[in-house]
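Hi there,

I know you've been waiting on this one. I reran it after we fixed the sequence typo, so this is the corrected version. Both the input and the resulting structure follow.
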Amino acid sequence: MQRLNRKILVLVAAISLVWTATGLTAEPAKDSKPDIVSVRVRGQGIDSESALKDALRRALEKGGRLEIYSQSQTENYELIRDTILARVTGLIRDYKIVSQGEDPIGGYFVEIIARVDRQLIDATWGQVQILLEQMGRPKILVSFVERIRDYVAVPDKDQIEMDSLLGNKIEGLLVEQGFELVDKNQIESLKKKRLEQASLDQDTGTIRALASELGADLYIVGFARASGPQMTDAYGVKLFMWETDVTLKAFWSETGQVLFSKSEVGSRSGSRTPGAPGAKKAIEKAGDKLAEECLTAILEKWSRQAVAGGKVVLEVKGVSFRQMMAIQDGLKQLEAVREVRRTFQKPVAKFEIVTTLSAENFAELLSELEWPEFVLEIEDQKFNTIIAEIAMIERTAKPVKHKTAKPVIEAEAEEPITPEVKKSKNATTTTTSAPTN
């Protein structure tokens, strides 16, 4: 009996050793992966710059794959994922180029060792997800016009094409990433004609005004020209060669700030199809790279503005010149404010503010501030624009001269939060935002 008990004990001990060696313990093993992981990847591209960007993106995907793909069932997954990947340089702590050069299969390659911040990926994912839940997906207006000079069919006149293959491709890319588009088929006839004429004239000011009217957060304008064709024979196949120029620009609707602007000039591309259809296909080929670069820029700039702050526009109604000066002085004292510019046309003052906060968080900050005679009542807050109105308050304040005035209020009961007090609080409570490009 004792021998049997000893055999059982030996067997149990052996099984325990096997379980320990293979990780099959009674309690689930904890995630022992560090917050910073090092990965080695190889990127490819048409030049060294695009190859490095590809390598950094691959490093982020590899180092943060658990954080990224664990969210695959969440709403707006594609948009959040690609937004995170577009901010690649802000989520990689550092990297070292191991090797680079021309790739035998064409183009360039860059091999790097990078350190990826997994914790920062989690935090950024949560920030972007919250933003989408609160404000919805960004809405984009795409307007593209093509001018085709066919020296064979219509040699003395440009053909105008508003239905662009490249424009449609850009819209398709945006939809795939989860953006919402302004449906041009639903635009009323008069506005549609204004949009088409503004696109022909490359009048971005009018397009911006129409984009705002149509509720678009961003707008993309494209202009392309194709001339030809020059007929050639390639291995027995007849090709129509076109020379093309393509320009693509993207803007914030609220501020007119440029998000992307680039041109591809003097490209040559062939098509088996003659006439305008062949020219449109040549334009699409020439603009392929621009379309991808534009999408990446939009994802990067949008996420940076949404999560890490940027330019916020504050529009205040019912304001006097003296009140405008007081607001400007108060804004400059805030810890989160880097720069303030203003314009004034009574009774409206507009402030362009460079801040480390998103518009949503900045609006919350403004709602807590008081000046000696008034407060700002927030009426509306869009993606990066805040609309407010002056609301007068009855409070006894010490008379002060304008040059030395600070928006500090003496109150008998509860001490109000002023820009000066907020600045001191921010110095100890403001957390550092994620690094950006």
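Quick highlight: Residues 36-134 form a domain with the Dodecin subunit-like fold (CATH 3.30.1660).

Best,
R. S.
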